[in-house]
Design a protein that fits this description.
Length: about 240
């Protein structure tokens, strides 16, 4: 019984029309369909030109190392599959990779590292006695961590005030930058312009020694009490 031939069947068997693996009856049916169908006739013509163009291409040479590369790939794939059989083989493969990594990385670094450490220790042992030789200090003055500001010069101008207590701010140069009346102190003199001017003149012409911190000048606030005859410094 002759098999029906359509365009899809013709396109599938078109390449095999010249070969003997299809029977003669089916080949005649394909040839008849190709002669009657313009679409299939055009497809057969294009296929024929394509085959001729492919036959006209130069033959490519097989790479010399193709067989060796294929064997290497096959060997790697076989080793990979055999290493995934169970957990024991996986652990063996991991230990082998770790050992190979340590041998390739640490062995080239071990000798230079050991040599560098030994040279550094030898150099330190040679130079350490020179660091221990220190000259005895002859003019070393012990310095307190912190020393408060002090009054070392009184004002030549007196006043008619009595027991005026102030918190005086002294800068790093020993100058008075501000003053305040402590809480709880009587400050009637602040309302008397003449007495206030006398107090400020006394502060202006007084001499102060600035505070020091590790030997360096620092600002500080001290409490002083102005009297007619002397000054009391409460710190």
């Amino acid at each position: 019984m002759m098999r029906p031939v359509d365009c899809q069947t013709f396109e599938f068997w078109c390449e095999d029309l010249a070969e003997s693996r299809i029977d003669a009856t089916f080949r005649e049916s394909l040839t008849a369909h190709g002669s009657q169908c313009p679409r299939c006739a055009d497809f057969a013509l294009r296929s024929h030109h394509q085959r001729r163009a492919l036959h006209g291409l130069p033959l490519r040479q097989v790479p010399v190392n193709l067989a060796i590369n294929l064997r290497v790939l096959a060997s790697k794939e076989r080793a990979r599959r055999s290493s995934m059989v169970n957990w024991d083989t996986r652990l063996d493969l991991l230990r082998e990779k770790t050992r190979l990594w340590l041998n390739n990385l640490w062995r080239p670094l071990a000798i230079p590292t050991a040599g560098g450490i030994a040279a550094a220790m030898l150099l330190f042992c040679v130079l350490m006695p020179t660091f221990a030789l220190q000259s005895q200090a002859t003019a070393d003055v012990p310095t307190a961590w912190y020393q408060a500001a002090e009054v070392y010069g009184l004002s030549p101008f007196g006043g008619n005030f009595e027991n005026v207590t102030l918190d005086v701010r002294i800068d790093m140069s020993g100058r008075v930058v501000d003053y305040t009346v402590p809480a709880g102190e009587t400050c009637k003199w602040t309302k008397d312009p003449e007495m206030r001017r006398a107090v400020e003149n006394s502060l202006l012409f007084m001499s102060f020694k600035p505070a020091s911190f590790f030997g360096q000048p620092a600002s500080d606030t001290i409490r002083i009490t102005l009297r007619r005859s002397h000054i009391e410094v409460k710190g």
